[in-house]
Amino acid sequence: MSTKTQARHRLTILGSTGSIGVNTLDVVRQLGGREAFEIMALTGHGNIALLAEQARTFGARLAVTADESRYAALKDTLAGTGIAVAAGASGLDEAAHMDAGWVMAAIVGTAGLAPTLAAARRGADIGLANKECLVSAGELFIQAVRQGGGRLIPVDSEHSAIFQCLETDQRHAVERIVLTASGGPFRNHSLAQMADVTIETARSHPTWSMGLKISVGSASMFNKALEMIEAKHLFDVRPEQIEVIVHPQSIVHSMVGYSDGSVIAQLGCPDMRTAIGYALTYPSRPNLSVERLDFARIARLDFEAPDESRFPALRLARTAMTRGGVQGAVMNAAEETAFEAFAEARIGFLDMADIAEVVMDRMSSVKPAASIEDVFAADAEARRQAAEAISTIKKTA
Ligand code: NAD
Ligand code: MG
């Protein structure tokens, strides 16, 4: 027990310079900073100044930029500090292998899969924000966690909520899980209006402040599609037990319905630090200075059914779950590629789901992954096919 407790105080944050990473370091600071935690490794990508500042402030042993071309810049910035520096895929692997008992997986996209898997395999407890790990690698990722012997604690607000609402000895009585969705900035837009939106309007989330990719994913509800698949793997439920409900206030973070008709919900202000703190100190609850809910001021909580004709991503998630195999990896990789094209104004907002669907259909007979290499191969092929589909759109546009 004492070794485990000691080990839990050693942290690594994969993706420390992003929205979740910065919030995680704020939670670490609130819970005692360097006095209470030993930061083993921090990783970033483009923002070297922030990464170096974080590494210095928290006394990290290792700082890693995933972008090899920025290695020299990071090395120069941290010269004389005694903080080790690394870069690229091998640097991320080194960070994952540092002896931290708890690892925050906060890289965006499948770029986070390899280091998160490495940390899981060596038995670290994983705080999972990087949902793409589960969407792409599914059972293989769960297996790696089991074999490693560490815990997998969700950080995604909906999944943290469900995790908190699940009574461990009553799992047999779970009827359904209900994922809430804010509906994003285009909740009341028609399809015609959505066809013309730009990255600037798509990224402006009404309730949560988050990274670019997930903000746009909230606008298209692709993020909710990823979360449905994430929930299936995390909680081992059947696709038909997963419901999505639009809840514009983002106060009810998600719910679990039981066989006696009871529904247990977890509520809070839309602030990721609550879910991060819960994952960091699980099973105890930390003291956090975050805004408290003022029910009289909120006054009402609204719910409405999602419209799958305007948000086809939800339908694609069900298709991916029904087909199984590598369809989650394919859906995610095709969408990441389409998202990049949308961010560069090469395709329209609605094209993203169309491209994901086309690639999923073309790759529907690919064999299930026997190993993680098969997942990476399906990911690469889906990106290639998505790029091809994008070039066709460009020609006809
Ligand atoms: P972000 O874009 O703000 O940060 C991403 C992090 O990943 C940064 O540290 C960046 O340097 C790093 N990164 C980017 N590209 C990389 C690459 N190719 N290789 C290695 N590292 C790379 O993203 P975010 O909003 O913090 O989201 C991170 C993850 O958490 C995503 O999977 C997202 O879906 C999930 N998540 C985020 C929130 C949120 O509130 N932001 C909520 C729930 C789940
Ligand atoms: Mg979420």
Number of helices: 19
CATH architecture of the largest domain: Orthogonal Bundle
The CATH top-level class label of the largest domain? Mainly Alpha
Oligomer: single chain
Low-pLDDT residue spans:
1-8
Q: What is the average of the pLDDT values?
A: 96
Query: How much helical structure, as a percent, in the residues?
Result: 40-55%
SS-derived structural category: alpha/beta
CA-CA gap between termini? 62 Å
Order of helices and strands: HEHHEHEHEHEHEHEHEHHHHEEEHHHHHH
* DSSP, total strands: 11
Strand order of the largest sheet: 4-3-2-1-5-6-7
Examine the coordinates and then state which fold CATH places here, giving the name of the CATH topology of the largest domain.
Rna Polymerase Sigma Factor, Chain: A
Beta-strand proportion? 5-15%
Radius of gyration: 20 Å
Bound molecules: nicotinamide-adenine-dinucleotide, magnesium ion
Description:
- By secondary structure, the chain is α/β, with parallel strands linked by helices.
- The protein folds into 2 domains: 9-154, Rossmann fold; 159-270 and 292-396, RNA polymerase sigma factor, region 2, helix turn helix motif (Rna Polymerase Sigma Factor, Chain: A).
- 50% of the residues lie in helices and 14% in strands.
- It contains 19 helices and 11 strands.
- Strands 4-3-2-1-5-6-7 form a 7-stranded parallel β-sheet, with helices on both faces.
- Helix 8 (132-148) runs parallel beside helix 13, helix 8 (132-148) packs across helix 17 and helix 18 (351-362) packs across helix 19.
- The protein is globular and about 55 Å long.
- The site of nicotinamide-adenine-dinucleotide has 26 residues, from helix 2 and helix 12.
